[in-house]
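Allow me, if you will, to draw on your knowledge of protein folds for a short while. A protein sequence and the structure tokens that stand for its backbone fold form the material at issue. I would ask you to consider whether the tokens describe a fold that such a sequence might reasonably adopt. Thank you for your consideration; the sequence and its tokens are set out here:
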Amino acid sequence: MKSISKEELEQAAALVHRAMLPTAAYAWPLLADAVGAEVWVKHENHTPTGAFKVRGGLVYLDRLKRERPRVKGIVSATRGNHGQSLAFAARAAGLPCSIFVPHGNSVEKNAAMRAFGADLRIQGQDFDEAKHHAADLAQEMEYEFVPSYHRDLVTGVGTFALELFTAQSDLDAVYVPIGLGSGISGLIAARDALNLKTEIVGVVSEHADAYALSFEAGRPVATNSALTFADGMAVRTPDPDAVAVVCAGAARILRVSEIEIADAIRLYYTATHSIAEGAGAAPLAGLLQERSKMQGKKAGVILCGQNIDREWFTTILDGGTPAVK
């Protein structure tokens, strides 16, 4: 993927900020106590869709409408936040939007996508199967198939990194979850565009570790399953372009357990009274895993989303860990 310039990020930010304000970054003292480091939380849970992905959807749809003003509609696959992003942006652009999710997907994310105007279709046993069904419908309806990883999406979500690094340019490391890779790629793009030295640390579930395996191998490596309640990271097949960006720009990739993710969700609630979904809490779980390495340093964590079903959140607050079959 061609590198993204500071000017491109600034132009994308101006576009995004027409639809939403920049999100806050706060240093929470109880998180500092828990980690032994200064911890800055980038609150991407405070966007119009409750997740960072909305930024990418706005940039993708803006370019699409300019280049193809007669496009009939869009279709994509998601576990939730990407779909909300596209539904939000498509409604603003006046385009029909069909979204495919797998069976067993988050009930509340499904409801949110419908509320934003998506034609929601439930097909496939996981994200990768849902994506195949979405591609078939795109061909049948002559809709634009929107992938989960694309330069426009990376540029859009990279605006949260531009905001963070503009406010806090001296972070020693930033921890970010990896689903299909737009978030970590946006962070790397902004870090490089601003000529900073901040380490970018990717975090995956130990049960959905395709990107960790790919980072270690230096090439895309798929897995046979991705069973994690952190559904934003439940990906079996990594994107080759994303793998190339991560291999070139990330310092390391950490694997975190389901229990560590649940612990991080509880800590977010008690220390900040913020709600984090599984993928949103994974960066904090990764930072907690590296407490000894980060003592006395300055770290950033991306709270990328808050869209967790009430049943799972209740289970976690009661001290449990959601089971995924």
